[in-house]
């Protein structure tokens, strides 16, 4: 039996078709083969903070823990509020560009901030 006719919920091979829906007699799950393709397509949520809130350009965020600044002896303290962030595509994970008072321009990873 092909994967298209297996139940996506319990992987049962006893699923049967009734008009346009597939039905699993073991778990009573119903699904449409056309609807599954749309449901399995990855949805781009954008950049999210540590709690899963979606960030946008111009948001304010709060740094959640002390972060060492590379190439300097200074530290960005946890609880520091950063205003007017800019989102960027970054391969190294630093997807937030910002200016921090007392430190200057720098890039942050979204996993270390929460939306203010």
UniProtKB/TrEMBL annotation:
<feature type="domain" description="Protein YjdM N-terminal">
    <location>
        <begin position="6"/>
        <end position="32"/>
    </location>
</feature>
<dbReference type="InterPro" id="IPR004624">
    <property type="entry name" value="YjdM"/>
</dbReference>
<dbReference type="InterPro" id="IPR013988">
    <property type="entry name" value="YjdM_C"/>
</dbReference>
<protein>
    <submittedName>
        <fullName>Alkylphosphonate utilization protein</fullName>
    </submittedName>
</protein>
<comment type="similarity">
    <text>Belongs to the YjdM family.</text>
</comment>
<dbReference type="InterPro" id="IPR013987">
    <property type="entry name" value="YjdM_N"/>
</dbReference>
<dbReference type="Pfam" id="PF03831">
    <property type="entry name" value="YjdM"/>
</dbReference>
<feature type="domain" description="Protein YjdM C-terminal">
    <location>
        <begin position="48"/>
        <end position="116"/>
    </location>
</feature>
<dbReference type="Pfam" id="PF08274">
    <property type="entry name" value="Zn_Ribbon_YjdM"/>
</dbReference>
């Amino acid at each position: 039996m092909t994967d298209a006719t297996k139940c996506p919920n319990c992987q049962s091979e006893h699923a049967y078709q009734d008009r346009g829906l597939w039905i699993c007699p073991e778990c009573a799950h119903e699904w449409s083969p056309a609807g599954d393709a749309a449901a399995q397509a990855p949805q781009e949520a954008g950049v999210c903070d540590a709690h899963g809130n979606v960030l946008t350009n111009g948001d304010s965020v709060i740094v959640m823990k002390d972060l060492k600044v590379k190439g300097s002896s200074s530290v960005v303290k946890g609880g520091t509020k950063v205003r007017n962030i800019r989102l960027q595509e970054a391969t190294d994970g630093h997807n937030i560009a910002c200016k921090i008072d007392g430190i200057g321009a720098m890039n942050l990873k979204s996993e270390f901030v929460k939306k203010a």
